[in-house]
Amino acid sequence: MRSHYESKMIAHRSLPLISQPDSFIKLPLQPSDDVILCRDPDGKPTARFGDDTWYFTSYHLSLCRPAVIRFQLLVICLNGNNELVAEVKRLLFFLIYNSSEESLSFSTLLNYYKLLRQMAVFCNSFEANSHVGKLSIITLVTNKSFLRKFSELHVHRRNFKPRLKAFMTHVKNFPKGVVNEPLVNLKEINFELHPGNQVCVIPSRIYVLLMNSMSAELARVHENMTNLDRFIACFRDEAFGVGIKHQRGKHGLKYGEFRATFEEAVSLYKLDDLFTGYFEASNRRELIGAFVKMQFLVKNIIHFYTGMRHEEALRLKFGCVRIQETFPALVDDLGVSRSASKSIDIISTTTKLTKTLQLESWIATEEVVKAVEVAEKICTGLSALIDEPVIENSSYLFLSPNIFHDKSKGAKSIPYFSAFPFPVTTTEEFKITVEDIEELSVSDPGRDFLSDPKFSVGEFWKLTSHQYRRSLAYYASSSGFVSQPSLKRQFKHLCLLMSQYYSNNFENFKAVFGYFDEKRNESVLSGNHIAFEFQIGMSKDAAGQIMAYLLGDETVIHGGAVNLLEDQKDRHAQRGTNIMEMRSVTERAVRNGELAYRETLLGGCMKLGPCDNFMLGDVTSCISCESALIQSDKINNVTQILEKEISQYSLESGEYQICSEELEKLRKRAKKLIKVENLHE
After folding, report:
1. I need a surface site. Which of 97, 130, 411, 572 has the fewest CB within 10 A?
2. Angle, alpha carbons 636-642-643 (nearest 5°)
3. DSSP state letter for 491
4. Quick check: pTM over 0.70?
5. Is the per-residue pLDDT at 178 higher than 70?
6. How many angstroms separate the CA atoms of 667 and 428, rounded?
7. 3-class secondary-structure state, position 470
8. 117: nearest Cα among 80, 75, 148, 74
């Protein structure tokens, strides 16, 4: 029995006491209407149990989706059946305070609400049936016949079975009295899970067209943006950029007081070549659309070259690009300076799998730098419109141009991009061909693209931001120059298997951007390929991890590679190497293949060359490996994961035997490490 019940929606979030929702010593089976589920930063309630609308904005990390549940719409769906509405609310309350998860995001809660809404509609459909009478959601999940019928109606929906299974797991955790009958065993339902389709790869022809056309548009904007921020700032004056007749009538200006008209202003700030084509604008209102399209181009470029998710790109801040010189510029015998080798990172936050905002960096390219510079020009100008100065690493990079006509939105307003398709995708070249379908079939052999109307030959290709992510993984893997662990780090995946999923079936495809050199007997890429950016960034990242160990952070490490690190420390100490020199030497050693580092589930590995055990997922092989760096806290984490996993298998199964062996090895190693660490204390 728990001693205290806190909202799972604020778990892992540091909220001041004034902003926290109600908590309970004993969870009520029927909450009162004045129970507060969410408060804003000032302590004002935004969601009470009895409210018709629940706002969870304070706990929701998304920038573009409103954190709201509207029960008024559910009342309409249920033809005024308030009993079912009350039951949905009550079950959501128990999910918030008593789910089996450690924390609960609003997005997850919303998914459960959608499932409960489907259940409520199903139950309500029996109201007119005199043989059944009133059917509740609790009755539905405890009656095999009803649940089977409900599942048959919704099995075609994406993620239906896993969501239902997760919900039933939470219900098992609810207090006694909420459910008085045993829940239906889903194994007895015997329905088939509708196969979910993986996000498709952009066909290589369209992918290359996109890259070329976006680069051309970006180059045009970048070349003509010099005065863009000052031009935007001038629109603080309501009379600026409008016709003379309008200036006289609405603003009461006289001869000698007139401001520049729109055409004059564009010419004055030398922007004639900017506001043409896709970005054409001839008045103040059209200017808003032009800026959103420019921002949309920037966002597409960022997705294309980094693989960032939609929300991760939206959370970019002003000054998000970090450029580091990995090797200084060299001057040859003729006095000609050769360009320095540098790595480019773009900084944002991610919430995937952590449910909290975590600061992260993504490897980027020069194209991304140019794109961000364009966005920063627009951001600076728009911020001047509302007299809110740009603050580096604080102001959002994508500020909504709608503040042109509604300044009350302020600097937290994010543009809505969905309404702006990228222009080139509406030209004839972007119509799907038979060859494109053949490529798609290679990338996902189990999927029938021919019968899907979205991929009909002759239709325009429909882009989504996640397609860029899948395509980057797919083509980077097919190039042969990027490893799966590198993709894992770039894509912020929890495990290697997720990166393998994103690059799934890449071995069936040619290296799109490379060619096979018969003399060298290997694949060759052009010097500006994104794969090289991965290699530079990953060697820098590996060196950074080694540096953390060399500089002696507070983490206690064990394993065969500890002696190697001690030797490195001694060498640097004898030479009197400073930190900057140490970093440079370490990066060079990693790049030359003299040192290596990869992250493992138990800590790290400094093995030079590939590791068969690592690629096969053999975790415990690290325990006896001479190249391993092992952390006791990570052993404990993996042990907990395996203990949870083994409980799902029967005692006779092979999976149980494998997990059991792994667990035994980990527990023995953990005991030894505890003894060693106690001796050092």
Report:
1. 130
2. 85
3. H
4. no
5. yes
6. 62
7. helix
8. 74
